[in-house]
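Re: the request from the purification team.
They wanted to know what the chain is likely to look like in 3D before they choose a buffer screen. I agreed to run a prediction and write the result into the notebook, where they can find it.
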Amino acid sequence: MRAECIQAVVNAIGRSITQAEVKGIENRINQHHKRLAQDTPGWMAMSKADRLREAAKSAADEITREAKLKKWRTALTILAHDRVKNYVESSTDTPVNALGRLIAFDSDQKSGVLSVESQAKAIRDIAYSQMLTLIDTTKGKFLSLLSDPESSKAVIKELHGEHSGNAAAKQSAKEFKDVAEFLRQRFNNSGGAIGRLESWAMPRSHSQLKVAKNREAWVDDHVKWADRRSYVNEDGSRMSDAQLREFFTHAARTIATGGINKVEPGRFIGGSLRANHGSESRSIHYKDADSFILAQQKYGDKDLLALLTGHIDRLARDIALTETLGPNSDLQFRTQMDMAQQSMINAEPAKFKKIESEMLRVERLYKDVAGQNDIPETPWLKEAFDTYRSINVASKLGSAAITAITDQGNLMVTAKVNNLPVMQVFAQELKLLNPADSASREAARRAGLGINYYLNGLQRFGAETLGSAGDTSGALSSSAQKIAGFVLRASGLNAMTAAGNQAFGMVMLDTIGGMTRKHANLAHLNAKDRTRLQGMGVTEADWAVWRKADVSDLSGMGDTVLTHNEILALSDSALTPLAKQFATTPAKLRNTAATKLLGVVQDEAQMAVVEPGARERVTLHRGTTRGTWSGEIWRSATQFKSFPIAMVMRHAHRALAQDGAGKGTYAAAIIAASTLLGGMAIQLNEIASGRDPRDMTKPEFWGGAFLKGGALGLYGDFLLTNQTQGGNSFIASIGGPLAGDIESVVKMTQGAAFKAIDGKDPHTAANVVRFIKGHTPGANLWYAKAALDHMIFHDIQEQFSPGYLSRMRQRAQKEYDQQFWWAPGETAPDRAPDLGAAFGN
């Protein structure tokens, strides 16, 4: 590097520079030459010396900013270290478990903090609640089964600053840009460094596999699609085709190798500074929306909604991590874990094995919450198994809406625990289920409630390993996920789940709003309410901000609904006195209070309508990795198990956390409510299947109802029999759909051969028909399955296996003492269901 260049920087920053800094100066000046050439009018008219001077000054300013940022991040790291250390030391739990509470939601309401997991969800849903027009415009038609490419293209045009003529698309683009900017600023306030790039329109996605297979074509296309104004030389001239080709060749190599080409051999590859996420150079610029659309169609791996929501999800997670653990959250977590381990082993060295087990569990929790488990080892393997699991959802959960009736018991118990009016929750739920009352559902979504079910609804009953329909690189997997989502919507499961979640949440927001109008601070609340809210992480600062915000009377009957929207609407001037009182900033007060409100409400709403979280995923997946044979087989074997595990883990843990006799009272309430509703679900399912209700005077019925109410569903079939009414053995069924399918294939192949050798009818064709039916999307829809069975499948199975229908009747009579109100093989029922059979008549 020339001496005059070095001297120019020294003059600009007013101090000497180190040799290490000298090495980077030339690259910096070159970069700033290009930026200034691109952005500065009259740049080419300046002399070479003046251009050098301006570039050097700009580079020096950047070095100064980086030094300030480093100093600020150091301060934030120290504050986070002390904050986490103080929390761990003040916790009544072990140090390692205290860190686990900080990371992931714990249901006992005694953590004293809102977990990173809950914060991330709340931040995400606050963002989603402000872009509902975008979600409506891009999520597709016909219960989201069919995409709407024209609307998506219109949104992309608006995001690129082009006029589409579509008012909804224009509003959608504005919503996303406003939300993305809000999150960028919040992330930067916690130590992030995402610059504002005027040419950035939206996130983009390049499939590593597609680029690797078509690297030359990708380069050729991007040379044509590039925005030439964004690619300039140091002297301000635009890059030539050859220069662009060289640039995009390197970019293609980076994408195709997943960045491995940039790794220095032998050098350790560690996690990057969390606060630097999103600050990497966003260096691929398209000349217009059409070029971007062509690029995504040919080389992308996500649909528009997945691209935009994925950007929101990542930012929300990074904000939650940096606000809690500081700019380098990975290092902070590792440091705190080491300190906790040292403390616990020094105190009880004989328990080192137990301590190691606790540490492994919490480390897995952190990886899950931090998104470190999201990247599969072998993408195509993940996609293949995702397709299989999506087919299972679409073909086996058509009647899950009936099982969802058992949510009402959880709603009731969780409402009582939180001192909410139970009948008001049920009334609100009915209101939200009213097809004509779209305004109530819209208000709930604006409050940040139930949006997840509105987006995809694949988070319950074993579909939690699937992302959004567009969040995949495989066309087959994407289609299968869309079909799975369609079946859940068509069954009514999504509507029921969302209504329960939103009803609970809206009533809790109304109750909290009313409390803030009556009580000046937490100390004035009754002891139970105060202890519960503080146990969930609510502080006096949060309460003071909540009191400042307005409440809404949504029904016109005196409601006091407090939402994050009213909190975020508070001005800096309104919060300045509180900011001085609590030694913070108005923005931090506002953002924390809004996140805390939605976070605690969402946590309880997901107790009332159980949804698996990080703890349940870690327990179920046992550290297996996505995209590996072991990981995918295990996830398939345990599909449909996460919901019952979540039900038991969350409510059993809360029951044990109650004082004295409260343990038994809570457990009895949950068991009684879920058992009664489980019995109702069994009977409704029997009737929907063409059978009379089962005899409720028999003890085994209530054993099945108990299991059904705990969402174990099919296991109730085994109380007196050795196989389910679907025909699978107990071992195959507890092994999940994968084990059941393996058993079915064995029956159709090896088992059939052995029977044939013994001179027995192997019923191969009938077994094949049953297998196909069991994997036909929508065949199990609760309101259609009886008609489909009687009009189609019964005749086919009887044709391939004479006597099949009579055996079905005999088995129902022998094992369940049941008759059919719609006889197998008949195209229409000859009588109504015998309700008296339920009472032994």
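For the purification team: The chain has a mean pLDDT of 86.
Please add any questions underneath this entry.
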